[in-house]
Design goal:
- It is a single chain.
- Helix content is 16%, strand content 27%.
- With 766 residues, the chain is an alpha/beta fold.
- The chain is globular.
- It starts with 6 loop residues before the first helix and ends in a 13-residue tail after the last strand.
- Keywords: Hydrolase, Protease, Serine protease, Signal.
- It comes from Tilletia caries.
- Belongs to the peptidase S8 family.
- GO terms for molecular function: serine-type endopeptidase activity.
């Protein structure tokens, strides 16, 4: 049931003024921040004095606008967002004395949204207890058997599940595209005792009209944009699904999810919408806020970043996606990931992939056409769902050249037969999108497509690139199988493929499994901060999808590693409670994470600028008896080098512990080409074992009694790197702990950069 805008909430908490916001409008949308010292009355939670005065000012200056949001909670940054009819009116807004800052914002897809692959080959106080809203306990039946789901095993959640911990009754806000709570994995219910999705709110309609509703479920069947409107359903499943069809759960299947819809069916959102949802989630008493959206701004002064920092300071952890523009190079920060106290999440590739069996049948009709022996080989393909085919079909090879970089990038020739009666074999192309390749085949009637990757690239699920309402089915096979089939056809063999009676199989990801995704965004920010806290598993992750579009999907991006970390924090909170502040929680997860190798055959660690602390280990986090502060050491640039810093190590265990400190350098990444002209390098940034900082600890070993702390001085020596390459160097300060878990409090990541003061960062923060 679709609900109408809910006016009571708008009147009591945050005034949201709806407008007939037409799609494609040309208005200039701005967020106007008010000076906090102008608030006259702090006795009430909300103060609209400045907002009323501002609108009177606009009226007096004949400034035409449409109101969007009023941010009036006096605990938060105050402001208004509005759509100006005339962009030339922007400077006039500063005429109102209380105006502190004006941001021009854009509606657009999130920087953290799942990317479309071009080259397929490729110290704050805790929140008061009164803030915690009460929800009825959720009765969830979780599997009695051992958890073997690969993403959970990779981050240590399986061990906590096997001990009986599932994040019970921790309230997690999911800010996204809304979600389909009719999915059986969410209990097919909303807002009732026993439901997974206990509440939520919607800020936008399906067509991106700003509309308030208490129903966060999207109704996007007519849009067919596969990577957008099901996004929130997938994200929520990573946290709290309890699925009996595919036999997997979310990482915190007893958590209570509230869904806050901030994006349209096509994935369009805006910073003021996100800011409004963050405020609402905090006011609703959420324990953890997870948002897989970010926007192109690298400054902490951005309004949405200031909202995040404030919510964190008030006691609610905020977990954010770093973004998926890793292939654009370094120094591409987003907001609100740069917000102080936020926990930004990078993405690691899944080690195990979902697939199904199929049969390759071949006969050499040339040598003996009438008595050709049929050879049958059983192999496997990657797909979210098995290909539904009841009979064998012959193979049509789209290109006579194996591993053709232009395979299916152009229209098929007129002589091409009707491909509805074939399985079309398409190879990885370097010069067009997979969506284009599929479209070219569909134009000739293709209903079944097998895609084979090249030997060095990330694996992709071809079925991700088919519209959910098409009747085309697709799967991905190995390069070896693809080349073999193509060559057999070229040699004159009769080759048919049989997809009947498929068996579900787990396919090891031997190419990228356990490594950073090349798409995962790089830090640092323009102020040499904004590092990821750590990484979760976000590459090739199976989760829930809207029922009308197939119920399940396998997707890739920091959008999906983020809810994994948020869910892991829910597990932690359910076991360890709420005594630790959000930033202390961040510290635990960063310093107990596992640093990652740069590549499969390398001992060099991946740069902290991309991986933060490494892959989270929630089991280690829960069991850790040590704490360290700060949890990241920011060395700044060469001119402002912060070479002497202090670490405080605390023993929160019950026995004395000895800590031996060490130096673990990570790969150095060069962000510029060395020409001296400030040209930033695009593409996946190579890591090298040179131009690394020197590190000394004093003392190098300490014994700390239970309940006590010890300061350690850390002195860094900057490398003598070529300034024209703008090197970003990083590493870890690991501690061997005896007795107790090895690396029980893990390692403190650090990061520094070359000379930045002369670089043009294309933004002045205004």
């Amino acid at each position: 049931m679709r609900l109408q805008p809910f006016g009571l909430w708008a009147a009591s908490v945050l005034l949201f003024l709806t407008s007939a916001q037409a799609r494609g409008r040309k208005d200039t949308v701005v967020i106007v921040s008010f000076r906090s010292d102008q608030v006259k009355d702090r006795s009430a939670q909300n103060d609209e004095t400045l907002h009323n005065g501002f609108e009177q000012y606009l009226k007096g200056r004949n400034i035409t606008y449409k109101p969007r949001f009023r941010f009036k909670d006096v605990r938060m940054p105050l402001g208004s967002s509005l759509a100006l009819s005339n962009e030339t009116d922007v400077p006039k807004l500063y005429g109102y004395p209380a105006v502190e800052q004006v941001e021009i914002i854009q509606n657009g897809p999130s920087a953290a949204f799942e990317r479309r692959v071009r080259k397929q080959s490729e110290s704050s106080s805790s929140a008061p207890s009164a803030h915690r809203a009460h929800f009825p306990p959720r009765a969830v039946s979780v599997p009695a058997q051992t958890d073997t789901y690969a993403p959970h095993v990779m981050v240590g959640a399986d061990k906590l599940h096997n001990e009986g911990s599932f994040g019970a009754n921790i309230k997690v806000a999911v800010l996204d595209t809304g979600l389909d709570y009719t999915h059986p994995a969410f209990g097919n219910c909303y807002g009732k005792p026993g439901c997974t999705v206990v509440g939520g709110y919607s800020f936008v309609s399906d067509d991106n009209t700003i509309t308030l509703s208490t129903d966060p479920r999207p109704n996007c069947d007519d849009y067919g944009i596969k990577s957008s409107w099901g996004h929130g359903t997938h994200v929520a499943g990573v946290i709290g699904a309890q699925d009996n069809v595919r036999n997997f759960t979310g990482i915190a299947p007893k958590a209570l999810i509230s869904a806050y819809r901030i994006a349209s069916c096509t994935g369009i959102s805006a910073p003021d919408v996100a800011a409004a949802a963050i405020v609402k989630a905090y006011q609703d008493g959420m324990d953890i806020i997870s948002m897989s959206f970010s926007f192109e701004s690298g400054w902490q002064q951005a309004f949405v970043a200031r909202i995040v920092s404030t919510v964190v300071s008030l006691g609610t952890p905020v977990v954010l996606a770093m973004g998926n523009s890793g292939e654009s190079g370094m120094f591409s920060p987003t907001s609100p990931t740069v917000a102080k106290g936020a926990f930004s999440v990078a993405s690691v590739q899944n080690k195990e992939l979902t697939g199904y069996t199929f049969a390759i049948k071949s006969s050499n009709s040339k040598s003996s056409p009438n008595a050709a022996k049929v050879n049958t080989t059983v192999s496997s393909y990657l797909s979210t769902n098995p290909i539904n085919m009841t009979s064998s079909l012959p193979v049509y090879v789209s290109s006579k050249t194996v591993n053709n970089p232009d395979d299916s990038c152009n229209d098929y020739p007129d002589s091409t037969p009707n491909l509805a009666k074939y399985v079309v074999l398409i190879g990885a192309a370097k010069n067009c999108f997979l969506t284009i390749q599929i479209f070219r085949a569909q134009a000739k009637g293709a209903k079944y497509i097998l895609y084979y990757s090249d030997t060095s690239s990330e694996l992709v699920y071809a079925d991700q690139f088919v519209d959910p309402f098409d009747d085309t089915q697709a799967g991905t096979i190995s390069n070896a199988d693809g080349v073999r089939i193509a060559k057999m056809v070229a040699y004159g063999y009769k080759v048919t493929l049989d997809f009947s009676g498929p068996k579900s199989v787990v396919i090891p990801n031997t190419v990228t499994g356990g490594l950073m995704g090349i798409y995962s965004e790089y830090s640092p920010s323009w102020t040499v901060g904004g590092l990821p806290g750590a990484a979760g598993v976000g590459g090739l992750v199976l989760s829930t999808w809207p029922v009308n579009a197939g119920s399940y999907q396998i997707l890739t991006g920091t959008s999906f590693s983020t809810p994994m970390v948020a869910g892991a924090m829910a597990l932690y909170r359910s076991i360890r409670g709420y005594a630790e502040t959000p930033e202390q929680l961040n510290a635990v997860f960063t310093t107990t994470a596992k640093p990652l190798p740069y590549s499969r055959n390398s001992t060099l660690l991946n740069t902290v600028a991309q991986s933060g602390g490494g892959l989270i280990d929630v089991y280690r986090a829960v069991k850790s008896t040590s704490r360290v502060w700060p949890y990241q050491l920011l060395l700044n640039d060469t001119h402002n080098f912060n070479g002497s810093q202090k670490l405080t190590i605390s023993n929160v265990g019950t026995q004395a512990q000895t800590y031996t400190l060490g130096h673990l350098p990570a790969g150095t990444a060069y962000s510029q080409d060395g020409s001296g002209e400030g040209n930033y390098l695009a593409g996946h940034i190579a890591n090298v074992a040179q131009d690394q900082a020197g590190v000394k600890f004093n003392p190098a070993s300490v014994t700390i009694a239970p309940g006590r702390s010890q300061d350690v001085q850390v002195v860094f020596t900057a490398p003598n790197a070529d300034p024209a390459k703008l090197a970003v160097y990083s590493g870890y300060g690991p501690a061997e702990v005896n007795p107790g878990l090895r690396n029980a409090h893990g390692a403190v990541p650090r990061c520094g950069g070359g000379l930045l003061e002369h670089q043009d960062n294309q933004d002045d923060g205004g």
